[in-house]
Amino acid sequence: xxxxxxxxxxxxxxxxxxxxxxxxxxxxxxxxxxxxxxxxxxxxxxxxxxxxxxxxxxxxxxxxxxxxxxxxxxxxxxxxxxxxxxxxxxxxxxxxxxxxxxxxxxxxxxxxxxxxxxxxxxxxxxxxxxxxxxxxxxxxxxxxxx
Length: 146
Hints:
- This protein is mainly α and about 150 residues long.
- Helices cover about 55% and strands about 10% of the residues.
- The strands form 2 sheets. The chain has a 3-stranded antiparallel beta sheet with strand order 2-1-3.
């Protein structure tokens, strides 16, 4: 429920959508860290979410936010992090960054300054969630409030 409160905007199809990169990252996170429990996760999902996660997740495709992202993340938090969205979010966030930021993006991280990367966050987040407006409201050398 914590994550659902973050995404209230609507698009023309009736809700936000999430890029397949994020959906694939969530599935891969569970398969990598809790491989023996992936079937259990699938069976705990709604039919709509289960259809997405049991099928082939296409990275360039957009998925419904609720069934492709929010509900599965909530289940992952319940199953593996005692319902703690902070612990689950940090673990999945670290994994997602490693998963998504490969190749050209990884080289970008090597040459870019921390301050520059932080300042680009509002643009970067909109490539994964749509519609999305993000703005930095407070920034220090190593942190920001988005």
